[in-house]
């Protein structure tokens, strides 16, 4: 049985400026022609932000798309970020309206059905605002400070959510953190389900149902049952073949004195070359964090590393090759830590595992983000992506079989939620655009992983309705 789907009609247009900026040519009042010009600028910017992203869109590109001059742009907006803030505001208002349409979340099957319907409505809101959903509310641009519009809306969303959680128990996780987590999980799950990605994806409806079940279970924890022993079903599955083919040292896939080279490298890593290779890899990691794979050139990487192009090309063929090396390192870290997760004996072990995982995310977050959001262009990267996805599916199935044998979650859909829960949500909320601190992220991961995905009682301080 499906619940009543919550539909929030979009606001027709963002709120446009009511007066020209000083110095205005004749009058500060914006007349019909000025309103038309301003609306054209906003419409062109919306389309460009959707296709190119914020950093890939310049003021010149916006004005050229409208056939107007830079002067016309600056009559209405001081900067690109001020224009982009209009879309922040529109998304923020739509999110607040959607949160206000939510009923008190209740336990049991009927409460889950109602919550799933509300969550699917949230997906509609985020899809309508696809040009900005990846940047809001998880953004903290210096140009917006100290009046970052995301923070004021996060405060409103937290206040709106508090009475809806009157029957729930989330321990020390407050409503602001929970609101960010729910929005983030929904929006990045939508990105992972991009049909252009390699491999067979589960139906969107199954992923939505699984995500709703995980969040709802975290709000209404059950009494802890017996956890199965680490046995045949709990043993770690075999690693992806591509990692085994090119990794002889799981502790450090780049380690020197090996017989094979990591993925992407032209040659084996020697003792002498290792410091240079690590330096260039660290620079590439920084460059990919700023521009992504599509927006980063070899020039960007060599400038960041302070090395000549010739030095780069001794080790890698192009930017895709060096990203493959970073992806190889990240995949080894992921598989190693997923093995450890499968060996956890109780909930407290998982809390300790989360802490270690956040250290991995600090190192590998940019690589995992590119892996999640961009279509990988080379055959080795696509093959590694498929193999890692298969491995994650196997790990998730073993986790569910051991911790929650009576639950009817789709393991493939749960694997997608687990990837977003461990990757995109904490990376954006804590690392890339920090609106949460490490403790916030640790507590919310404990709530959603232990209480939500695994259906166990989270070993955090007891609490009733969240703060």
TrEMBL record:
Residues 35-95, 274-334 form the HTH tetR-type domain. InterPro entries: Homeodomain-like_sf, HTH-type_TetR-like_transc_reg, HTH_TetR. Keywords: DNA-binding. The keyword DNA-binding applies. SUPFAM superfamilies: Homeodomain-like. GO terms for molecular function: DNA-binding transcription factor activity; transcription cis-regulatory region binding. Residues 58-77, 297-316 bind DNA. This is Transcriptional regulator, TetR family. It comes from Frankia torreyi.
